[in-house]
Amino acid sequence: MDRRKMLALLGASPALVAGAPAYASTPAKADPVDSPAAGDGRITVLSPAIPGKLATRYPLAPPLADLKNKTIYMINLSWEGPDAGNYFYGAMREWLAQQYPGIKTIVKVTADGMFGTDAAILKDIVTSKADAAIVGVAG
User: Fold this and answer.
1) Do 112 and 66 form a contact (C-beta atoms < 8 A)?
2) Rounded to whole angstroms, how far apart are CA atoms 137 and 72?
3) How confident is the model over 31-90, as pLDDT tens digits?
4) Is 105 helix (H, G, I), strand (E, B) or coil?
5) Among 19, 51, 63, 95, which one is most buried in terms of CB atoms within 10 A?
6) Minimal CA–CA distance to 102: which of 129, 70, 80, 66?
7) Sign of CA dihedral 67, 72, 78, 83
8) Which residues have CB under 8 Å from 83's CB, separation 6+?
């Protein structure tokens, strides 16, 4: 085939495709009653502005003077799966046991994952009178 004819056909092919009928179904029209526009030409959007009232702020707990004979909870938020933090928490438990005699470490995996608040774990921490918690480290 002649090179010029081939290039001419290639140049014409987008025009042929653009002129072909579309066979996709058209989207269903939104019910105007449920639509945020509701006929007045405006739509409702979420404002990115900071709200006028900030959340209540609480001071940080004072640091512990020493970790000897303390109870530390390690909360795995399952960031990369429920077993992702096991290696890290295991290594941390070993190191803490070597550095601070009598330390008690308790590893818990949240039932709600990283986006929830596991009430059972919070209750355990409060009732056991834990001294500290390490939360959210992934593997």
Assistant:
1) no
2) 14
3) 555 555 456 778 878 878 877 788 889 998 899 999 999 999 998 887 777 677 788 888
4) strand
5) 95
6) 70
7) positive
8) 139
